[in-house]
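Example (one chain per record):
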Amino acid sequence: MIPAEIQSPIGTFETQVIEVVGERAMAKRDHLAVEQPLDIRIGFGPGNNRDRKTISITMRTPGHDGELAVGLLFAEGVLTQPSDVLRIVQREPNIVRVDLSPGVRVDLAKLQRSGVMNSSCGLCGKTTIDGIEESCEMIPPSGTTIPATVIHKLPSRLREAQPTFAQTGGLHAVALFNSNGELLAAREDVGRHNAADKLIGAECLAGRLPLAERILFVSGRASFELVQKAIMAGVPVFAAVGAPSSLAVELATRFGMTLLGFVRDGRFNIYCGAERIRVELDA
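Predicted structure:
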C-alpha cells in the first residue's frame, strides 16, 4: 500500500451537554464525531508537464483520507489498479492529493458530468442505470452459498469494529467480510459514501480488487450510489442494516448482485440474488 505523508487518526470532539431524562436534567460531557471538509485533488499528465486539479470537496471524518480519495477515483473509473497511483500526498490535514501515474488518462469533462467536481456525492447527476453500465461489469456467479446464520452475525461483528461510533453514536460504517463471516476490514465516517470509498480505496491500493467471494455490509440503508460502488469493486453480496431504494434493487438485479436489507434482530430480506444465500424455505 502507498502510504500518505500524513495519517490523521479518526477523532472525537468533547463537549458539554444537558441530558434530560423524563423531567430531570443534568450536565454531562459528551463526545461527537469530528466532521471537517476534505479537498481532494489529483496530479496527472506526462512527467514533464503535470497538472493539478481539485475534483471534490467533501465533508468527512478525518482519517484514511488517501484511501477515501482513491476509492472515489476508482468508483469514477479514473484508476483501476494500484500501479495507477504514483503517490498520495497530504501535507495539510484537510487537503489530500493523489498523483496518478503518467499513463493514466483523466477525462475532466466526464468528472464534471458525473458531479464529482461539483459535489461531495460521486454520483449526483447520474440518474439512470444506463448511464453507468459502461463502467461496471457483471458479477460472476458464485460456487458457494452463505448460510443465513452468517448474515445474522454481521451486525454484532460490525458494531465491535466501530470504536468511534461507540463513543459518539454519530458515524456510519462499512465492513468487508468473507463468506464465513470473518471481518476483513472496516471503515467509519460521518458519510456512508466516504466510508465505502475509504474501504474500497484501501482494498484497491492493496491489490485485492475485485472483491470476489466477499460480503460488503453497511450500517445504513442500501442506496443506489453505494450499490454502484460495490459493483465497481466486484462485490457479490451487499448487505445493509436499513432498506434499499428501488433503484438500488434494479441496479443489483441488472448486474447479478445479491442484495440484502433490514439485516438486524435475527432477520433480513433478500431482494435479488437469492441463490447465494443458504436458507430453509417454508412449504
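Caption: The domain at 146-278 is CATH 3.40.140.10 (Cytidine Deaminase; domain 2).
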